[in-house]
Amino acid sequence: MHVVLAALFFFAILTLWVPAYWPVTVFQVGVFTLAVAALAVFGIRRMRRTDLYPLFPLSFAVAWGLLQWATGHTAYAFDTETAVVRWATFLAVFLAGVCLFRETEHESAAPGNSRAFAETRAPQGARAFAGDR
User: Fold this and answer.
1) How far apart are CA 125 and CA 129, in angstroms?
2) Which residues of the chain have pLDDT under 70?
3) Maximum Cα–Cα distance across the chain
4) Which residues contact 42 (CB under 8 A, 6 or more apart)?
5) Summary count for the chain: helices (H), strands (E)
6) What is the pTM of this model?
7) Domain extent listing, the chain
8) Are 12 and 23 in contact (CB under 8 A)?
């Protein structure tokens, strides 16, 4: 799924200057599909509480736009609908990113992990370096 997210971002960057709305729609549909698939596979249980804090402002932006659109208290309904979809896309990108790139406890302690390597090997290297003087 990491490759799909990367492909979506490559597509979005390559079609950034196309003067039509279809590239944005393709990116949004792809991101929404990927977010639903990531939540179905990994679930929200994989997230820590600290990972969930950005959900509040993103969800608030979507809810506020939906409230404005539903009550009719908007200056221009099309712009409000577009903004709601845009903020929902930001929310979906965040959810997909947290689900796909969140390390579990087991993965962070793996021997190939650079942080685990630095924690175990750096003190030994520092002692060896200090002994060379």
Assistant:
1) 6
2) 44-46, 103-133
3) 75
4) 99, 100, 102
5) 7, 0
6) 0.72
7) 2-102
8) yes
